[in-house]
């Protein structure tokens, strides 16, 4: 648990830039963490570490990057609820699918700033990490879904009917959490139907924002479609723009800034955890 490398605020911005994000008057410093990084298996106590990191840098952290598979599901749900409360973005590695000679898919990563996720290493977001990812209000990257797995010897020692009762309660709690995070029900059923020995990969194109948040953002900043997002990317890379293209780019840029400032202002009004 630490700050993401290369994510700092530009302290040379004018006063208006700061006021539009933090009306309360608080300001980041040279050492302020803008984005957190969670790496490795989720274990008991990780929620407290995330809270400590966020509390020290509230309200300036706008999101977390997460990587690596597996871990404690209950701890992951606590972290996911924290992310939702503070409207934090969540990014996981975006897997590039390359067909191999065997006809199966291989997942690799582009280079990143994080030494743990350099190209050549498998750096994924699956299982408990996916649970955290669903807590994000803007989700980026790819996550792997499957039923929770347990290696608890006490569970193995249970009679089948007792094991069924215990496991059903675990699944019910996860379903409640995913409903709370506004995950589409077909996706929840896909997770439940996928063996813990297998994995189903899903990327942010399928569920970028929770529906209620998307409508709240659209009500405040105007609606937009995925085509508009792609258009902004194209226009931003293009050289000379026509009059109509310039108008379109300005409109989309203004909406993008409105969304950023909307979330920053909301965090600014919240007390730290």
Largest sheet: 5 strands, mixed
Total helical segments: 10
The level 1 CATH classification is: Alpha Beta
- Give the oligomeric state of the chains in this entry, treating copies of one chain as homo and distinct chains as hetero: single chain
Structural class: alpha/beta
Kindly provide the radius of gyration, computed on alpha-carbon positions and rounded to a whole number of angstroms: 20 Å
Q: Strand share of the residues?
A: 5-15%
Separation of the first and last Cα atoms:
17 Å
How much helix is in the residues? Answer: 40-55%
Apparent shape: globular
The CATH topology assignment is 2-enoyl-CoA Hydratase, Chain A, domain 1
Order of helices and strands: EHEHEHEEEHEEHHHEHHH
Average pLDDT value?
Answer: 81
- Order of neighbouring strands in the sheet with most strands: 1-2-3-4-7
| Superfamily (CATH H level) name | 2-enoyl-CoA Hydratase, Chain A, domain 1
Supply the CATH architecture.
Answer: Alpha-Beta Complex
Number of domains: 1
> Unreliable runs, pLDDT <50, ≥5 residues?
98-125
Number of strands: 9
């Amino acid at each position: 648990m630490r700050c993401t490398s290369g994510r700092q605020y530009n302290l040379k911005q004018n006063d208006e830039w700061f006021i539009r994000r933090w009306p309360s008057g608080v300001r980041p410093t040279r050492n302020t963490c803008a984005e957190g990084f969670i790496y490795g298996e989720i274990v008991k106590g990780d929620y407290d570490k995330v809270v400590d990191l966020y509390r020290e840098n509230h309200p300036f952290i706008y999101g977390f990057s997460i990587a690596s598979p597996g871990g404690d599901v209950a701890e992951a749900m606590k972290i996911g609820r924290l992310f939702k409360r503070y409207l934090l973005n969540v990014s996981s590695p975006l897997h590039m699918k390359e067909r191999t000679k065997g006809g199966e898919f291989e997942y690799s990563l582009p280079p990143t700033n994080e030494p743990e996720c350099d190209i050549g290493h498998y750096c994924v977001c699956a299982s408990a990490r996916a649970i955290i990812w669903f807590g994000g209000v803007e989700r980026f990257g790819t996550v792997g879904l499957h039923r929770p797995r347990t290696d608890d010897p006490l569970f193995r020692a249970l009679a089948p009917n007792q094991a069924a009762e215990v496991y059903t309660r675990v699944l019910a709690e996860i379903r409640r959490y995913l409903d709370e995070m506004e995950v589409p029900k077909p996706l929840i059923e896909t997770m439940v139907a996928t063996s813990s020995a297998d994995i189903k990969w899903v990327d942010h194109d399928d569920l970028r924002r929770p529906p209620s948040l998307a409508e709240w953002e659209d009500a405040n900043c105007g609606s937009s479609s995925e085509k508009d997002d792609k258009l902004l990317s194209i226009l931003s890379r293009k050289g000379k723009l026509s009059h109509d293209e310039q108008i379109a780019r300005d409109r989309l840029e203004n909406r993008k800034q409105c969304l950023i400032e909307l979330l920053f202002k909301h965090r600014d009004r919240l007390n730290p955890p």
